[in-house]
């Protein structure tokens, strides 16, 4: 995880400082991927401007997804590529962000979204796609699901399991998910920040 901030993080322990002047995501990605430490920090004067520069330097893909809650107070998670995740996917050309979020949740999980709530946050993560570095910006929304559905993982998207978890039982998620998903869960109050 790379934290981009205008002030040093309160919890500096564990963060390796990266130079904002020499930062090149294409170069640093390989270096970071080979490190045991997974916490990095870039302290810069203007975080928005810095992020804007990073976006220009790599391929940007916009996606949308949801944190879905059912009538019993359970939250919907998917299991993809060996990690617990939240349903999300690419926004199609001329598609509204909210519509994409609902469509992706319904396609990936086999549920029907009955209510779209507030926007939770945006997250960014980086990955290689056929040797090309991609920055994925994901818009996250609160969603509701009413009724009973036979959960159906979208296998062709690498999803092998879809499950409901009570807030009190998200330990397996916390133990095996991505930093960006943890950001969504913390922002929405599902888990407390350390």
From TrEMBL:
CDD domains: NUDIX_Ap6A_hydrolase (cd03673)
Keyword Hydrolase found: yes
Annotated keywords: Hydrolase
Enzyme class: hydrolase
One Pfam short name: NUDIX
Enzyme Commission numbers on file: 3.6.1.61
Nudix hydrolase domain ranges (all copies): 59-188
Molecular function via GO: bis(5'-nucleosyl)-tetraphosphatase (asymmetrical) activity
The keyword Ribonucleoprotein is assigned to this record: no
UniProt record, GO biological process: AMP biosynthetic process; ATP biosynthetic process
Membership in a protein family: Belongs to the Nudix hydrolase family.
Protein name, entry field: Diadenosine hexaphosphate hydrolase
Organism: Mucilaginibacter gotjawali
């Amino acid at each position: 995880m790379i934290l981009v901030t205008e002030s040093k993080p309160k919890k500096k322990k564990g963060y390796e400082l990266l130079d904002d002047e020499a930062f090149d995501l294409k170069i640093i990605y390989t270096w970071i991927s080979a490190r045991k430490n997974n916490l990095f920090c870039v302290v810069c004067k203007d975080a928005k401007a810095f992020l804007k520069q990073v976006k220009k330097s790599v391929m940007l893909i916009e996606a949308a997804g949801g944190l879905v809650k059912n009538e019993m107070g359970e939250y919907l998670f998917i299991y993809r590529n060996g990690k617990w995740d939240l349903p999300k996917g690419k926004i199609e050309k001329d598609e509204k962000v909210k519509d994409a979020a609902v469509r992706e949740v319904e396609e990936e999980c086999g549920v029907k979204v009955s209510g779209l709530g507030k926007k939770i946050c945006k997250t960014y993560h980086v990955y290689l796609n056929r040797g090309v570095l991609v920055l994925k910006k994901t818009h996250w929304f609160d969603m509701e699901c009413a009724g009973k559905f036979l959960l159906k993982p979208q296998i062709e998207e690498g999803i092998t399991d879809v499950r409901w978890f009570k807030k009190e039982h998200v330990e397996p998620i916390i133990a095996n998910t991505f930093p960006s998903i943890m950001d969504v869960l913390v922002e929405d109050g599902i888990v407390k920040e350390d």
